[in-house]
């Protein structure tokens, strides 16, 4: 059964955040809130949890996982960013955007797009998510908590606990965080491509 953590949305309890991070370091798969919607998260090298995410969401090998980063300095360790892209990404973070960029060697091969060798990265504007990745000290490997054949992500912690009780190890509930996933911008080509229109304003990339 999944452990259930009630976390204050503006002032997350440090002890609770520490407990969740300890479980992540021990191999846990966690459902947690972001500034767009709930997500599934685990440590970067956790192959078992990655396989569980793929199973829960019925994903294939072409799925772009996202590295949820604490800040731009951390993000830049895992993707290659030229000057033009740097300015565009910097201006839009933190926020409800995911950026697809060429990965550095810091990213495990299994997380890369098989042909393009890219990975998704984002810096969320959410106090609880920021507390998690800050305490973890590395990006949180994530995927939107959108179940197969459903049009919208799950938004309530108690419902996630009920439906995924035997598939995740922990659920963090800090209130409703909406149903709209991030806007996804692919910067791996010559021009930015809007892959998914979501919570982030796309006008700056058009």
UniProtKB/TrEMBL annotation:
<dbReference type="GO" id="GO:0003725">
    <property type="term" value="F:double-stranded RNA binding"/>
</dbReference>
<protein>
    <submittedName>
        <fullName>Threonylcarbamoyl-AMP synthase</fullName>
    </submittedName>
</protein>
<dbReference type="InterPro" id="IPR052532">
    <property type="entry name" value="SUA5_domain"/>
</dbReference>
<dbReference type="InterPro" id="IPR006070">
    <property type="entry name" value="Sua5-like_dom"/>
</dbReference>
<dbReference type="Pfam" id="PF01300">
    <property type="entry name" value="Sua5_yciO_yrdC"/>
</dbReference>
<dbReference type="InterPro" id="IPR017945">
    <property type="entry name" value="DHBP_synth_RibB-like_a/b_dom"/>
</dbReference>
<feature type="domain" description="YrdC-like">
    <location>
        <begin position="14"/>
        <end position="200"/>
    </location>
</feature>
């Amino acid at each position: 059964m999944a452990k259930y953590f009630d976390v204050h949305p503006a002032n997350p309890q440090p002890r609770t955040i520490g407990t969740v991070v300890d479980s992540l370091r021990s191999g846990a798969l966690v459902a947690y809130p972001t500034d767009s919607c709930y997500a599934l998260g685990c440590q970067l090298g956790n192959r078992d949890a990655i396989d569980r995410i793929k199973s829960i969401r019925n994903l294939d090998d072409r799925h772009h996982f996202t590295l949820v980063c604490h800040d731009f300095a951390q993000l830049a360790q895992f993707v290659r960013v030229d000057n033009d892209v740097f300015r565009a990404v910097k201006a839009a973070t933190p926020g409800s955007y995911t950026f697809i960029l060429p990965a550095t060697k810091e990213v495990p091969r299994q997380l890369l797009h098989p042909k393009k060798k890219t990975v998704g990265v984002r810096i969320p504007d959410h106090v609880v998510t920021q507390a998690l990745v800050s305490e973890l000290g590395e990006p949180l490997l994530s995927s939107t908590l959108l179940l197969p054949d459903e049009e919208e992500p799950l938004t309530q912690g108690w419902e996630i606990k009920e439906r995924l009780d035997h598939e995740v190890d922990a659920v963090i509930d800090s209130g409703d965080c909406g149903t709209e996933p991030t806007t996804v911008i692919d910067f791996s080509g010559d021009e930015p491509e809007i892959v998914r229109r979501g919570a982030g304003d796309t006008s700056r990339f058009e």
